[in-house]
Each structure stands twice: as C-alpha cells, then as structure tokens.
C-alpha cells in the first residue's frame, strides 16, 4: 500500500468502527449516515479524485511544450481538494505531480516555499504560486491561454 492510500484506508476503518458501534446501540440509520460520510471523506482524500500524477520531470517537459500549469499536490490536503473540485473538468488539462510519490516534485515545492512542502503549488511558465485562487488557475487552463 502506498502512502497516498493510508488516510483513505484509516477513514474507511474508522467509519466502519463508528457504524458498528451505532448498529450495536440500536441506531442503524445513524450508522448508515456515518458510514456514508466516512466513505465520502475517504473518496475525496484518495488518489482517485485527482488526475493521474506524473513525475516532476515529465510535468516540466510537458509544460514547456504546451504551456499548461504544473500542479504539485499531495493526498489529504484540503486545499488541493478544494482546487481540484473548483477546477472541475478543466483540472485534467493541468499536469499533476503528487509530491508524496515523487521526491523531485517535493524538492521543487520546497525550493518554491522556503523549505516547506506547502501545496498546492502551481507553476506557470517557471513561476510558482502557492495555494492560488482556483479562478486564476482555471484562466491558465483555458484553451485561449
């Protein structure tokens, strides 16, 4: 199991435990609601929500060719989830790099953020922006940009 799946798996296990306790207490409806909430949280925090990650080197190469932003992210980051959801379908146009899977990506984020692994960090034309407004990123992803 990779590091990216740890949080979703913990959420599923916790949700199962809470639901079991609720069922044993005689509240199957509450158990179902709790379990659904934990499953939703696990899904949102899983790698399934984000487009397929590529290496930092490959992302930089592709960005140099097509001019699209490189988004450095990590699973479980609420700001990364916010960015991904607010970008909608246009998120697939960006080049996504999971810093937990790519040490070079983590190093690029640390270099842009005074040694901190602050994500999302979006790089457009070689210029990094930390936790940018999703509308700003969406503008960079539009076909006319």
Automatic annotation (TrEMBL):
User: Which InterPro entries would you find in this protein's record?
Assistant: Glutaredoxin, Thioredoxin-like_sf
Give all residue intervals belonging to the Glutaredoxin domain: 70-126
Q: Name one Pfam family in it.
A: Glutaredoxin
Coiled coil regions in record: none
Q: Where does this protein come from, organism-wise?
A: Streptomyces racemochromogenes
Residue intervals passing through the bilayer = 29-50
Keywords (alphabetical) are: Membrane, Signal, Transmembrane, Transmembrane helix
- The residues forming the signal peptide are 1-19
Q: This protein is called what?
A: Glutaredoxin domain-containing protein
């Amino acid at each position: 199991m990779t590091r990216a799946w740890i949080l979703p798996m913990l959420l599923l296990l916790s949700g199962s435990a809470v639901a079991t306790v609720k069922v044993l207490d005689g509240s199957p409806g509450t158990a179902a609601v709790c379990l659904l909430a934990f499953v939703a949280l696990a899904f949102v925090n899983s790698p399934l929500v984000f487009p397929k990650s590529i290496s930092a080197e490959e992302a930089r190469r592709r960005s140099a060719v097509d001019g699209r932003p490189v988004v450095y992210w990590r699973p479980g980051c609420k700001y990364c989830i916010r960015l991904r959801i607010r970008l909608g379908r246009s998120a697939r146009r960006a080049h996504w790099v999971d810093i937990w899977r790519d040490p070079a990506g983590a190093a690029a984020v640390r270099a842009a953020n005074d040694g901190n692994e602050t994500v999302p960090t979006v790089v457009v034309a070689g210029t990094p922006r930390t936790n940018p407004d999703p509308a700003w990123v969406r503008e960079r992803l539009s076909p006319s940009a």
